[in-house]
Amino acid sequence: DAKTTQPNSMESNEEEPVHLPCNHSTISGTDYIHWYRQLPSQGPEYVIHGLTSNVNNRMASLAIAEDRKSSTLILHRATLRDAAVYYCILSRYGGSQGNLIFGKGTKLSVKP
Amino acid sequence: ETGVTQTPRHLVMGMTNKKSLKCEQHLGHNAMYWYKQSAKKPLELMFVYSLEERVENNSVPSRFSPECPNSSHLFLHLHTLQPEDSALYLCASSRTGWPSNNQPQHFGDGTRLSIL
Predict the structure, then answer these.
(1) pLDDT over 60 (residue A99)
(2) Is the dihedral of CA A27, A29, A31, A34 positive or negative?
(3) A97 contacts chain B (CB < 8 A)
(4) Region B100-115: what's the mean pLDDT?
(5) Beta-carbon neighbour count of residue B38 at 10 Å?
(6) pLDDT at A2
(7) For A71, which of A33, A53, A108, A112 is 20 to 30 Å away at the CA?
(8) SS3 string of A8-42?
(9) In the A/B pair of chains, how many CB contacts fall below 8 A?
(10) Longest Cα pair distance anywhere in chain B, in angstroms?
(11) Separation of alpha carbons A98 and A105, rounded Å
(12) Contact residues for B12 (Cβ-Cβ < 8 A; gap 6+)
């Protein structure tokens, strides 16, 4: 299954936009790009997913490169509640290990 | 509130005990999953059920035994566990399951299991 590469950690200031990058150079044509986040002492929470086009929802935006080898999760105005570990995951149809293979993610810290 | 409820939230058991973890989803989903999250390791998929049929067993030791009696409930039966099985066990559900890959998964908050 295709892998993703994310920075281990990032910092942001409250009320500023945050751009979380993800590289997935071995992505295949039918792999979806999913983002989840996990707050302390909670299970992962779905954020957004997409295939080729950029996607927006109430939580975030997902910008997908034209060649699909990278993507960026955009939090438009970071709040303290956005401090979490963010996971970028490629989900392959009929993947050998189910669908979601979690990596180590990016730990986002938000400063007031 | 994610719509996925796991009980108990915390469990301490000895290596010779038998216990069960319970997961219930109120979302009308057809697929359910068990994951294991150990300290400093990524989440690992354990089992996948789609329409109450087990479709994935990710090389999990037989001391973990899943059960899916209906599409809303999922159990993980535990027996003769080892100290390295101490971890956070997470349940998730999705509207459709494997092999489909475009459905979000909704997670519970997990059961923190400690093996003495």
Answers:
(1) yes
(2) positive
(3) yes
(4) 92
(5) 13
(6) 65
(7) A112
(8) CEEEEECCCCEEEEEECCCCCCCCEEEEEEECCCC
(9) 66
(10) 40
(11) 19
(12) B113, B114, B116
Q: pLDDT category, A19, cuts 50, 70, 90? A: very high
Tell me phi and psi for residue B95, to 5 degrees: -60, -45
Beta pairing class for B53-57 and B4-7: unpaired
Instruction: Classify residue B102 by burial, with Cβ atoms within 10 Å: 0-12, 13-18, 19+.
Output: middle
Task: Specify whether the CB–CB gap between B110 and B43 falls below 8 A.
Answer: no
Q: Are A50 and A63 in contact (CB under 8 A)?
A: no
Q: At which residue do the structure tokens 């490169």 appear?
A: A65
Closest CA relative to residue B35, chosen from B94, B115, B114, B108: B108
- Mean pLDDT score of chain A: 92
Q: Residue B64 above 70 pLDDT?
A: yes
What is the reported pLDDT for A56? 96
Residues of A in contact with B100 (CB under 8 A): 93, 99
Which of A35, A57, A99, A102 to mutate to test binding with chain B, by most B CBs within 10 Å of its CB?
A: A99
Write down the number of H helices and E strands in chain B.
0, 11
Quick: pLDDT tens for B16-58.
889 999 999 999 999 999 999 998 788 898 998 988 888 877 7
In contact, B38 and B61? CB cutoff 8 Å: no
| Predicted pLDDT of residue A97 | 57
Tokens at A78, concatenated? 């970071």
